[in-house]
Amino acid sequence: MSLLPNDQRQLLHKCLLKYVRNHSSKSELDSLPGTEKIDENVVMRTLAMWLDVDLESLDDKEKPVDASLLPRKWNSIVRLQRRIIELEKQIQELTQENETLMNEGPVSLASKSSLTWVPRDQSKININCGASVSSVKLHPELPLLFAATDSGKLLCYDIMNSSMPTVSVQAHMRGITSIDVIMSEKTECFVVTSSKDLYCKVFRLVESELQPIRSLAGHEHVVSQVRIWKQGSDTLVATCSRDLTCKVWDVSNGWCLTSFQPHSEWVRSLDVMGDYIVTGSNDCTVRLSHWQSGRGLSNGIGHTFPIERVKIIPMLQSDSVADEVRTVYNTYDEAYVNLGFSHVVTASRDNTIRIWQVPLPKFVAHRPPQPDQTRQHFSLVTILKGHTSWVRDLCIRGNYLLSCGDDRTIRVWNLSTGEIARVISSSHDGFVNCIHTDGNGLIRQIMASGCADGKVRVFIK
């Protein structure tokens, strides 16, 4: 069976004949070894008969045959063949890399390259959300991205096909201030939101639908930030608000477990680990509290403008974690085992990022921890300067701290040296409000950022 249709086969045969006629002469035919004088016309007629082509059709004025068509087709075939070889080689390399990673496991992979990955200057995926993006979060396992906007919409995008959101929910009547995502033991994904409409809401992601399961009401002013985490078999949510309070909620029944006032002004940010909450406020201080008792344990003083974001730097307890991701801030310290961390980082409107060491409270059996009266203030370890405007958000990935701000840049800091590893300044056209990337637990090399211009940029290796 012929690989070409009749019309294409006839055209190819005509091109062959025309090519031979135009590039062969009688002298060339006569000079062939072992041949006598050959009549060129006889040769052409023989070839035409063999190829089943009418010689007179070669000079048809209505449909002339281009003599250069055959070389062009041949060059195209060569280029395609070269590209096929390159793609086959690339597929083979990726297959070998995938097999290696599957055999070595996530710990080995993290020790090699993933946690030392730094995003490049240009994003690979650009998403238009239609309104200022206030918060972005990556799904812990799937290639999904959650984005919240100032219009109150909660969006979910498939990173592999981000032309349209897979889910779009009008979650709140006013702007969403933050979102957080967690996977349960039953492989369920929970998404929690906080808003300017004074509510916090919890959604469950089921296939391509966000199902509302809880609406947490109790704050009397804007809810600034929300965090969700697992405490034993319970799923808990912590919120902070402009009403000066922090609250902890039980997702299973929607009850408020505790409410306390850690600051004298607007509580803008919080982070949680176990029984402890770190908060940042408009009063320019950062505070450590025991949330079950509501007791303040210590605070950090030094910022000259409101604190926009606080982050806990968790200790790395596994000896198998690569040395590339170990720093003085996340090294395992037996003295801090009960606390779970020894350092926190804060971002402020004074254009600086500060790293603090948290003083140890006094632990008493069967009683809430007590503040150490001899050491009530955080110890300032270092100040990271580089941003020229408000620093909005922070994210920790291995040995790197990522920050973004109103100077329209994303900066990557090396925590071991305190130096800037990279400045991403050309991706956004407005204030960069939020960033998110995988932490120490996963191996993906991806970062997402949200901007006041309504765009989400995704940076992938």
Automatic annotation (TrEMBL):
WD repeat residues: 216-259, 344-358, 384-423
A cellular component annotation (GO) from this entry: microtubule associated complex
GO biological process: cell division; establishment of mitotic spindle orientation; microtubule sliding; nuclear migration along microtubule
Top-level division of the source organism's lineage: Eukaryota
Subcellular location per the Swiss-Prot or TrEMBL entry: Cytoplasm, Cytoskeleton; Cytoplasm, Cytoskeleton, Spindle pole
Keywords from the UniProt entry: Cell cycle, Cell division, Coiled coil, Cytoplasm, Cytoskeleton, Microtubule, Mitosis, Repeat, Transport, WD repeat
Principal cellular location given in the protein's record: cytoplasm
UniProt function note: Positively regulates the activity of the minus-end directed microtubule motor protein dynein. Plays a central role in positioning the mitotic spindle at the bud neck during cell division. Targets cytoplasmic dynein to microtubule plus ends, thereby promoting dynein-mediated microtubule sliding along the bud cortex and consequently the movement of the mitotic spindle to the bud neck.
Protein name as it appears in the record: Nuclear distribution protein PAC1
Species classification: Eukaryota, Fungi, Dikarya, Ascomycota, Saccharomycotina
Gene from which this protein is expressed: PAC1
